[in-house]
Specification:
Elements (H helix, E strand, L loop, with lengths): L3 H14 L14 H14 L9
Length: about 55
């Protein structure tokens, strides 16, 4: 279970950026799909919190 936080972080990073966390030559890919994934993540994990504000 101790590897789970790292695995989740790497999976989210890959989904949002469009490349694997260990990709030797990553290129940033931003489009409607990756923006939708990030919105879904924030909606799910940010419920009841003011995510992105201080």
């Amino acid at each position: 279970m101790q590897y789970m936080p790292d695995a989740l972080e790497k999976a989210l990073e890959a989904a949002i950026t469009g490349h694997a966390w260990d990709d030797p030559s990553p290129t940033l890919k931003r489009d409607e799909v990756t923006a939708g994934i990030m919105k879904d993540v924030l909606d799910s994990y940010g419920r009841g919190r003011r995510v992105g504000t201080r």
